[in-house]
């Protein structure tokens, strides 16, 4: 007997990401590009208002940031690049066209490594190019119920970089990982705040399905308007299922653009291929083509900071951290820098000493420190604790000056006040008790108060000793040296 097996489909996703660059001025004029929290239409001039006859000027910093990004995602930088006019017939760009890059972008052929389910894979990057952002339209309704729109030109002309991926992504989760990695790199190199909720990092997601093993791509659907990573994931998951159902029902999905509606959790069709744009690109006549000198490109390359993957490898090889620890500690550049700074007093120390201290710093950073940061709702760069203080505090534990338990209390005070650990210890009287006589006195008191536990121990119940150690620690508010308590207690019980 044979059963007809259902066709398996493969998900194909390619992402176009638009990133606002953190330059002081706009892309083609001298207006400030800081448009958030400014009154509408105050950062404007004839150039970004699209007046006829004005001349745009290329923002050098934006070009540099774009090449920097391209290098960080392993792109080739061609010798020549140019800007092109892209027809754009909407009211949010006053000129009626956008100055973008068509066939000679600043870069091509890069890749980014993502990790999904423990497996690493490369996602190809088609190109990274530079263009300009559009104005903001605000839709309103008057008392008569008529709708109208307001235009705020402050955002028009802000440098916008576009990063286009190859259709190499195979699941909504892989897409999410790709976006997180890209955002991490952009923040590491400091070219953008890359904040999706605030609109400085925006993603259009293209998705199609094809029978498993097929080499041709199916018709793609482009989903827009997601403003969080979660929304991208949900929109893609929804779209994959919709297309699968269509294919299984014998229909072929059509190429179209859909807009994500957060409230309903569904992408709604906006336009199909018949209405696809005719961009009518042509070389921008008001801007010169650019020659990208090799020396210039190399001068940017050498200024690239150590990137997350390289940092993670160095933390594992150099400090002996696990992949898990190294991954978390390199999540942001500030966190990784703090970690490095905590260990800088040990540069040149024996590898064993370095690894031991690294492990302790990692435990504190991922444990108590992370918890306190989380509670305070801040990042490591806003914390009052200095790397040197964490280093010194761990030193105090190692020397036996404070117990591991007191250290937690000491660290909380350091976190609140930014004081160095030695001061905190002195002021709070948390110095570890290592005096034999002092500890012995407490032990005698505890033994006298707990005759039952003493009997239990003497009749062979080994656990009773743990209880007694606990009582001594309680009596001393955790300040007794636990090793000494253990030794002295056993001595007393044996006699
Ligand atoms: P367009 O000119 O419509 O923007 P492109 O061919 O330039 O289309 O591709 C835009 C994005 O769509 C790229 O990220 C690319 O990887 C992705 N893409 C192209 N074809 C497909 C497809 N069939 N399925 C999924 N993604 C695709
Ligand atoms: Mg597109
Ligand atoms: Zn301007």
Quick description:
The protein is an alpha+beta fold.
SS element count, helices: 15
Strand content: 15-25%
Helix content: 25-40%
Shape type = elongated
Bound small molecules, which ones? adenosine-5'-diphosphate, magnesium ion, zinc ion
Strand order of the largest sheet: 5-6-9-1-10-11-12-13
Number of strands: 15
- Which structural class fits the helix and strand makeup? alpha+beta
User: What's the structural domain tally?
Assistant: 3
Distance between the termini: 83 Å
Indicate the radius of gyration in whole angstroms: 31 Å
Could you characterize the architecture of this molecule?
This protein has 495 residues and is of the alpha+beta class. The chain has three domains: 9-299, no CATH class; 308-428, no CATH class; 436-494, Orthogonal Bundle (Arc Repressor Mutant, subunit A). It is built from 15 helices and 15 strands. The chain has helices spanning 60-72, 172-189, 229-248, 294-301, 308-319, 323-329, 333-343, 351-376, 387-399, 404-417, 421-428, 436-449, 451-458, 464-475, 482-494, and strands at 9-20, 80-81, 84-87, 97-100, 108-116, 119-132, 136-141, 147-152, 159-165, 201-211, 221-226, 256-261, 266-272, 282-283, 290-291. It has an eight-stranded mixed sheet with strand order 5-6-9-1-10-11-12-13. Strands 4-3-14 form a three-stranded antiparallel sheet, with no helix packed on it. A two-stranded antiparallel sheet has the order 2-15. Helix 13 runs antiparallel to helix 14. The radius of gyration is 31 Å and the shape is elongated. The chain binds adenosine-5'-diphosphate, magnesium ion and zinc ion. Zinc ion is lined by residues 26, 29, 31, 44-45, 47-48, 157.
């Amino acid at each position: 007997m044979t059963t007809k097996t259902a066709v398996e489909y493969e998900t194909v996703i390619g992402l176009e990401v638009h990133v606002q660059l953190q330059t002081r001025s706009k892309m083609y004029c001298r207006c400030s590009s800081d448009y958030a929290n400014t009154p509408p239409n105050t950062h404007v001039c004839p150039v970004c208002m699209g007046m006829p006859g004005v001349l745009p000027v290329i923002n050098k910093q934006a070009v540099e940031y774009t090449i920097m990004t391209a290098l960080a995602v392993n792109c080739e930088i061609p010798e020549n690049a140019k800007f092109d006019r892209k027809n754009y017939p909407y009211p949010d760009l006053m000129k009626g066209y956008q100055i973008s890059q068509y066939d000679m972008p600043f870069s091509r052929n890069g890749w980014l490594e993502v990790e999904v389910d423990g497996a690493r894979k490369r996602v190809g990057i088609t190109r990274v190019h530079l263009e300009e952002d559009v104005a903001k339209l605000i839709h309103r309704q008057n008392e008569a119920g008529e709708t109208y729109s307001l235009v705020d030109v402050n955002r028009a002309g802000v440098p916008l970089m576009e990063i286009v991926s190859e259709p190499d992504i195979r699941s909504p989760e892989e897409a999410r990982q790709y976006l997180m990695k890209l955002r991490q790199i952009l923040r590491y190199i400091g070219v953008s705040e890359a904040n999706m909720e605030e609109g400085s990092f925006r993603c259009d997601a293209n998705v199609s399905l094809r029978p498993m093993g097929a080499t041709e791509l199916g018709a793609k659907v482009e989903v827009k308007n997601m403003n969080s990573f979660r929304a991208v994931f949900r929109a893609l998951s929804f779209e994959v299922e919709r297309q699968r159902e269509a294919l299984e029902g014998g229909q072929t999905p059509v190429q179209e653009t859909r807009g994500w509606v957060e409230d309903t959790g569904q992408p709604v069709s906006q336009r199909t291929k018949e209405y696809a744009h005719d961009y009518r690109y042509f070389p921008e006549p008001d801007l010169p083509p650019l020659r990208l000198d090799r020396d210039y490109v190399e001068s940017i390359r050498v200024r690239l900071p150590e990137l997350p993957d390289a940092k993670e490898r160095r933390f594992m090889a150099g400090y002996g951290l696990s992949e898990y620890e190294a991954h978390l500690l390199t999540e942001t550049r500030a966190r990784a820098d703090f970690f490095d700074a905590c260990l800088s007093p040990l540069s040149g120390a024996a590898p064993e000493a370095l690894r031991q201290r690294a492990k302790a710093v990692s435990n504190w950073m991922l444990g108590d420190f992370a918890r306190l940061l989380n509670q305070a709702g801040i990042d490591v760069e806003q914390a009052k604790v200095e790397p040197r203080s964490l280093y010194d505090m761990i030193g105090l534990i190692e020397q036996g000056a404070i117990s591991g338990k007191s250290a937690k209390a000491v660290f909380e005070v350091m976190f609140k006040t930014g004081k160095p650990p030695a001061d905190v210890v002195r002021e709070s009287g948390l110095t570890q008790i290592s005096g034999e006589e002092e500890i012995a006195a407490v032990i005698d008191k505890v033994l006298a108060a707990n005759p039952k536990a003493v009997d239990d121990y003497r009749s062979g119940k080994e656990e009773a000793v743990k209880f007694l150690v606990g009582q001594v620690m309680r009596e001393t508010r955790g300040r007794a040296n636990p090793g000494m308590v253990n030794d002295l207690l056993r001595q007393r019980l044996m006699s």
